[in-house]
Task: structure prediction
Amino acid sequence: MIWVTLLLVAGGLALVRARDVFQRVVALDLLAVVVVALLALWSYYRDVPYYFDAAVAMALLSFVATVAAARYLGSGGPFG
Amino acid sequence: MISVVLDVVGAVLLLIGLILMTIGVWGVLRQPDTYLQLHAQGLAIGPGVMAVLASSVATENATIITFAVLAIAFVALTAPVSGHAIARAAHRRAARRR
Result:
């Protein structure tokens, strides 16, 4: 779990180091997936299943957000 | 007996998942291009998080395992779609710039 938290920090570093907007989108998708894994591990550790609700909702939201951002950027985004 | 087997399987899956996720984050940090970053993310992070979720068999809690199966199915369905969407958007942007 500590290791996944370190991975979260590394993902934030990737987000900060991104040079264009697609790299930022990739880093945000990565961060969402790492948060899903962190919530799953927290659920195992506490033996409480409710954290998985948040994990599934996080995966769904990140998917919708990524696809929306990609469609928006693909059709001529705001920063191009 | 079965509990020990499940513990060992869960620990091995957790180790595999953490190693894969570490490789994936390292790849996203190191690769210079969007497509290479997508390669690292799609091929390492997706299976890594699926392995971490699959290690829920060690908890022997029916609710947790059900939600983990749901989350695995969801990640397996959506990770390639979002990667493809990002790659297609980047390709279109590059084609328009040219």
Q: What stands out?
A: The two ends of chain B are 63 Å apart (CA to CA). Chain B touches chain A through 44 residues (CB under 8 Å).
